[in-house]
Amino acid sequence: MNDTEQNQAELNSRNNNSKTVKKLLLVVLAMFGFGFALVPLYDVFCDITGLNGKTNKTAVAYTATTIDKSRTVTVQFITRNAQGIPWIFEPIINEITVHPGEIKLVSFYAKNKASYDMIAQAVPSVSPGLAANYFHKIECFCFTQQPLKAAEEVEMTLQFYVDVELPEDINTLTLSYTLYDITEKSS
Fold first, then answer.
1. Cys-Cys crosslink for 76: which of 119, 174, 182, 184, Cβ 3.0 to 4.6 Å?
2. What is the C-alpha to C-alpha distance for residues 169 and 184, in angstroms, rounded to an integer?
3. Would you say 90 and 79 are in contact if contact means Cβ atoms under 8 Å apart?
4. For the segment 21-64, what is each residue's pLDDT rounded down to a tens digit?
């Protein structure tokens, strides 16, 4: 192979490498953009399908005009702490039976086991996700931040009702709360 052919081969190799690098950079940029778009896309998907399990973020007024006494729905309560939050956080009762349209009041217990003051926020989710549209919180500790001094304990309430329009095939709802430490964000 003469020098001209060798130079041409090196030039072709550099061009191919340059094209490959550009393609890889485009893939990285596309993945980065998709990562940012994923949360809004997920929210839109969940709003359309009703599969998100998100409950109302603010109190609702009681709007049920009747109570469906011919039907009962079991509402289960589950709690968990996000990693690193040293609190005891649990429902006083694990489940309750309600008639759609009936107002119920339940309580949750929390204790800050840390040696310092903390602020926490409970984030709710309902399962099955479709049922979230029919689970209405009138009053909930999850609407506000929960500051607790070191070793302080508190009983927090949830007042809710299940809409009479809940599909007939849903007989059990699970309300799950995850407790997050937001002390640094609140300072």
1. 174
2. 43
3. yes
4. 888 888 888 888 777 777 676 666 555 555 555 666 667 777 76
